[in-house]
Amino acid sequence: MKGKRRLALIGLAIGVTVAVLSLPMILNVTLLQADPDRLQEQPALLAVAALEARPVYRQKCATCHGADLKGDHTIGAPDLTDAEWIYGQGRIAEIERTIAYGIRSGHPKTRNLSLMPTFASAKPYARETLNPLTPTQIDDVVDYILAIEGRTPRSAAAAQRGQSLFLGYGGCYDCHTSDARGDNFVGAPSLRDHVWLYGDGSPAAIFASIARGRAGVCPAWTGRLSPATIRALAAFVYRKSHPPSAQDRRG
């Protein structure tokens, strides 16, 4: 009897061990079989995926985006907890694509359609001809941006000149659109929403972005993280920017 009991206990222990070890595999398969943009319809799966991704985020992503996902304006790492997206609308599939291929990462599938020109240089943009701007002209564009954001420009006349530069000679409209609401297909942020990727939105910070240009880089994680881990990270970021409702938490 003792021998049979011992064998039964050993069998039970083995069964539990196998079940525990297979849980990550089951999660990975379930995640990869799911439509990423319908994961929010499976809050339990979304929550488990986000929980699994949390330590990966801390190890791989927190250095730039912060432990609280609030980003770092000194290096242009965006806040991942708000509703503002440089690329796409914040869908899980879109977040997953950015994590997988990065931004200006050098990967063939990376997001790299545009960058902020260096308007204070003689040749602001390598990909096409753009007119350089003088410091006075850049100041005028800054005043225009202050005005369209709902702040008081330092000079109404300067803001008017800045509008002409934005819509004409400076070519700013080409990426940021004529209403300055941006284009999240090419990665041009809105200039009206009080959300700043670099700096604090002060005139000096805006001037620096226009004069020096911006071309932030996000690494491509495909090949370094498994597809399931990348999707889990996308689920983690999605949940942080779309907190579950009270009904979801009860469920």
Secondary structure layout plus pairing:
Layout: H1 2-33, H2 43-60, H3 62-65, H4 92-101, H5 135-148, H6 156-167, H7 173-176, H8 203-212, H9 227-241, H10 246-250
Helix pairs in contact: 1-9, 2-9, 4-9, 5-6, 5-8
Output the keywords.
about 250 residues; mainly alpha; Cytochrome Bc1 Complex, Chain D, domain 2; 2 domains; about 50% helix; disordered C terminus
Your description of this structure?
By secondary structure, the chain is mostly helical. The two termini are 45 Å apart. The protein is built from 10 helices and no strands. The protein has 2 domains: 23-111 and 219-243, Cytochrome Bc1 Complex, Chain D, domain 2 (Orthogonal Bundle), CATH 1.10.760; 135-212, Cytochrome Bc1 Complex, Chain D, domain 2, CATH 1.10.760.10. Mean pLDDT is 89; it is low at 6-23 and 246-251. Helices cover 49% and strands 0% of the residues.
- The beta-strand count equals 0
Number of domains: 2
Radius of gyration of CA atoms, rounded to a whole number: 24 Å
Overall mean pLDDT: 89
Per CATH, the architecture of the largest domain is Orthogonal Bundle
| CA-based shape | elongated
The fourth-level CATH homologous superfamily of the largest domain is Cytochrome c-like domain
Q: List segments where confidence is low: pLDDT < 50 over at least 5 consecutive residues.
A: 6-23, 246-251
Q: Helix and strand string, N-terminal first?
A: HHHHHHHHHH
The N- and C-terminal alpha carbons lie at a distance of 45 Å
* Discrete helix count: 10
CATH class designation of the largest domain: Mainly Alpha
Structural class: mainly alpha
User: Main β-sheet: number of strands, strand sense, barrel status?
Assistant: none
**In CATH terms, what is the fold-level topology of the largest domain?**
Cytochrome Bc1 Complex, Chain D, domain 2
